[in-house]
Design goal:
Blueprint: E1 4-11, H1 15-26, E2 29-34, E3 49-55, E4 61-66, E5 78-84, H2 87-98, E6 102-109, E7 115-120, E8 126-131
Parallel strand pairs: 1-4, 5-8
Antiparallel strand pairs: 1-5, 2-3, 3-4, 6-7, 7-8
InterPro entries: Glyas_Bleomycin-R_OHBP_Dase, Glyas_Fos-R_dOase_dom, PhnB-like
Pfam families: Glyoxalase
Organism: Streptomyces shaanxiensis
Length: 136
């Protein structure tokens, strides 16, 4: 799979409704995964969206999730996602983007099985890197 770059939007508990709306507008295939599916069954977030992805016939990709921290700020509720399975390419992007950045999640294996990291670069842009199928 080629690496992709797309927006990632966070929501204050209504990610399911928002992503379903965007599917109505843009068409395509919508995949939604809840926090409960990834080990948080007995929490208030169990039915909330941990990760949603809309892929459209026009080649658009939009990702979104409910923020688990409660610090939702409309207008500042997005980041840029880089994802794919080319480990060398994506690790290279991570190394460059995280230099001088504030790293919120170190690039490491996550509960869903991929390697993931998140940082806010020196210009204030939040980046998420996900390397599919890598065991860390």
């Amino acid at each position: 799979m080629a690496s992709r770059l797309n927006p990632y939007i966070t929501f204050a508990g209504d990610a399911r409704q928002a992503m379903e709306f965007y599917k109505e507008v843009l068409g395509g295939t919508l995949t939604l995964n809840t926090y409960g599916e990834y080990g948080q069954q007995d929490t208030p977030m169990a039915d909330k969206i941990m990760h949603g992805m809309l892929e459209t016939p026009s080649g658009f990709t939009l990702m979104g999730a409910d923020t688990p921290t409660g610090d939702h700020n409309p207008g500042n509720n997005f980041s840029v996602s880089l994802s794919g399975d080319d480990e060398a390419e994506l690790r290279g992007y991570w190394e460059k983007l995280s230099e001088g950045a504030s790293v919120t999640v170190p690039l490491d294996k996550q509960m869903w099985g991929d390697v993931f990291g998140m940082c806010t670069d020196r210009f204030g842009i939040t980046w998420m890197i996900n390397i599919a199928g890598q065991g860390g």
